[in-house]
Amino acid sequence: MRPAASSSSGTVGVGVDNLSITYRLGRKEILALDRISVEVRQGELLVLLGPSGCGKSTLLNAVAGLLKPDEGQITIAGREVFGSKGLVNVPPNGRNLGMIFQAYSLWPHMTVRDNVAFPLKRRGFAQKDVKPTANAALDLVRCGQLADQYPGQLSGGQQQRVALARAIVAEPAVLLFDEPLSNLDANLRRQLRDEIAGLHNRLQFSGIYVTHDQAEALSLGTSVAVMTTARIEQIGTPQEVHNSPVSEYVAWFLGANVFDATVDARGAVETPFGVLSSEETTGKGPARVAIYPERLRIEPADDGTATITLVQYKGTAVEYSVQAGNASVNVVTITSEQPLAIGDRVNVSALPRDVLVFSDPGIVSATAAASEPGQAKRNSEGP
Ligand code: ADP
Ligand code: MG
């Protein structure tokens, strides 16, 4: 199996332009995608991250051709597969893609090898190449020894590896993943996540990966698109969306504490936890502050501004819930020292660069570039 980068023309793996989908249930209408535009560059693994119901699967299924959009355009490897006002609508098996779903979707009556060989046969691979190509794909996901077994004889993790082999075996232009690890237990999820990252690194396929799990998104994506209902709120590298969230929502979804504050005339940020300074400059007035739990510091102090309300030992770290007034934050500290106890008074602080300040509608004023509705903000043009 070769890296795909050199084998495909153009630099755009998947192009989605102004795509809208409304579900109609009797008289009820659900706007599932609101004029979404997004691009997956050749070799890029774009993660769609957002809460349940925000439209991730709808977008993925539209790209796959399983769902017909109301309007917009979709291209795969430079070819229009949906568009021209709905006149072009290439069926799923003509779109040159591989899919992996949450449920292990192998055919139970076929051996593992026959499952993996299926896309090759459908595409008319020469008979003599089918078996070695299927075996090579199984070897890539470390399942070569399972070739003659049936799916029912495999564990969930093994079935998902085989599904992965089946998706990549014919070297499709694009791989689509819809929460493929959600049914696995934590250890397996971690293992398979690492393997998908490794495979992407080696094969450089273009892909879209849907998840609601922020850790999965940040560790797998070359780009991450954070979604709210029917829209993409921000796209960037994992570092960009994490370190420079464009809104309170993005910061919150990536795990930041968010609470009320007031910015005074000199730019100091008054919070229930005391006065903090920030590198962000918003106008004075009410604001929202976002700070990641790992970037907050607490110091025991008899006259501290806050109180420890919960202590959770996590092995390598200790997570505290810390309250001041009616605001509460999580603080993660990596320490081998004796943890603080419930009821202890502490002072809370953070480095100015870690204090993210959002003016009231929830947009960082420093980066609030005006954007078209439905257009996500990109921190930069990326690679
Ligand atoms: P996600 O994958 O992010 O959890 P979905 O794309 O499945 O979200 O759903 C987006 C929205 O569309 C939700 O409000 C969901 O209830 C609705 N929806 C999804 N599929 C259908 C359907 N077949 N019929 C009606 N509404 C649907
Ligand atoms: Mg879904």
Short description, anyone?
The protein is an alpha+beta fold and 383 residues long. It is 22% helix and 34% strand. It is built from eight helices and 22 strands.
Annotate the secondary structure layout.
Layout lengths: L11 E14 L2 E14 L3 E5 L6 H9 L6 E6 L2 E5 L4 E2 L7 E4 L11 H11 L4 H14 L15 H13 L5 E5 L7 H18 L2 E6 L2 H7 L2 E6 L2 E6 L1 H6 L4 H6 L3 E7 L5 E3 L2 E3 L8 E7 L5 E4 L5 E8 L4 E7 L2 E7 L11 E5 L6 E4 L17 E2 L5
Describe, in plain words, how this protein is organized in 3D.
The chain is of the alpha+beta class. 22% of the residues lie in helices and 34% in strands. The protein contains eight helices and 22 strands. The chain has helices at residues 56-64, 112-122, 127-140, 156-168, 186-203, 214-220, 238-243, 248-253, and strands spanning 12-25, 28-41, 45-49, 71-76, 79-83, 88-89, 97-100, 174-178, 206-211, 223-228, 231-236, 257-263, 269-271, 274-276, 285-291, 297-300, 306-313, 318-324, 327-333, 345-349, 356-359, 377-378. Strands 7-8-9-3-10-11-22 form a seven-stranded mixed β-sheet, sandwiched between helices. The chain has a five-stranded antiparallel β-sheet with strand order 2-1-4-5-6, with helices on one face. Strands 14-13-12-15-21 form a five-stranded antiparallel β-sheet. Strand 10 (223-228) and strand 11 form a beta hairpin. Helix 2 (112-122) packs across helix 3, helix 2 packs parallel to helix 4 and helix 3 packs across helix 4 (156-168). Mean pLDDT is 89; it is low at 2-9, 362-375 and 379-383. The site of magnesium ion has 2 residues, from helix 1.
